[in-house]
Design a protein that fits this description.
Layout lengths: L1 H29 L4 E3 L12 H15 L2 H7 L5 H22 L2 E3 L13 H19 L1 H5 L2
Antiparallel strand pairs: 1-2
Helix pairs in contact: 1-4, 4-5
Amino acid sequence: MLKKVIFYLSLLIVLIFFDQFFKQAIIHQIKTPFICNKFFSFGINISFGYLGIILFLWLSFFFWQRKNIIFFLRKKRGTQMALAFILAGAISNLIDRVKQGCVIDFINIHILNYPWFNLADIFIVIGSFYLGLLILINKKEILNT
């Protein structure tokens, strides 16, 4: 059990470090275009400031309390991996918000005017997709708990 906790905490730290490293390299070394996103997810024009940080923490706590899903899924293989990716992305973007007042987005896909994003956003999407897949696969068992 302790080995699992150490593994997933290590994964969390490595993912956060990886994202923060690339953001700092983009800003100070590589000199590639980036934006300082003061808005909400996917560039939605809602600026919350510190209220957004408080809202994020409250929502995290609220979803953490949904015990019937979380406690059931914690027994399933892969749940910790999905949560590690989601938390790493969220924490890394939160670090940016607190440290710089915005999130550094440096990946831009010029298809359909898609919003700028970063590695932390990719981690969140991967973890959310995987967690959603786990919930769909185990839907009947979850509803019966």
